[in-house]
Amino acid sequence: GAGVSQSPRYKVTKRGQDVALRCDPISGHVSLYWYRQALGQGPEFLTYFNYEAQQDKSGLPNDRFSAERPEGSISTLTIQRTEQRDSAMYRCASSPSTGLRNYGYTFGSGTRLTVV
Amino acid sequence: AQSVSQHNHHVILSEAASLELGCNYSYGGTVNLFWYVQYPGQHLQLLLKYFSGDPLVKGIKGFEAEFIKSKFSFNLRKPSVQWSDTAEYFCAVDGSGNTGKLIFGQGTTLQVKP
Q1: Which pLDDT belongs to residue B31?
Q2: Staple A49 to which of A29, A69, A85, B31, CB 3.0 to 4.6 Å?
Q3: Could you tell me whether strands A19-24 and A10-13 are parallel, antiparallel, or unpaired per DSSP bridges?
Q4: Closest Cα partner for A21 from A68, A84, A70, A73?
């Protein structure tokens, strides 16, 4: 596609429900990153992939959070048993190559998650 | 742990005023530095980046930033702002050996009055 596509744009869920957030990167982009941004804060790193391999998941807050990118393209961030503190903007970004020296990221528009 | 500090949380300027947004980071090793911008209703976009070489980096839309290693700083500047520069600005650091794992500052909201 022309850009990084995230769906849904907005998600309201009840506490305790599971949610799956989808990221469709630019075609052919090798690296894919997930960030979370709370209101009034900068994006906070969650995890990233090179192709289908999850390279670093040190930013995932706890074991309720997981991510996958099984075919090296679309990625899903799953939050189980959601809590109100999970409410945030979840951002996805992709890059044509590993590292940012030559290209930098392209960010998607984000998914605004609200847990009620 | 690495961190990024943006000193100004909310800046209000009149058109044609000069802009300088502060950014300091805490990391002793080699870093790659970035400024991102988010215009109202849009996604985050790269303004400029520094990897090596000339510490004065020029980006899009007339922005520039200067890397001062001794001060652990990467301040963003623009000589004359326009109303269209109203946006949120984020400084970010990659101290992970160019993996692309960024640590972002909390952002500075710039409001330019016409």
Answers
A1: 87
A2: A69
A3: unpaired
A4: A68
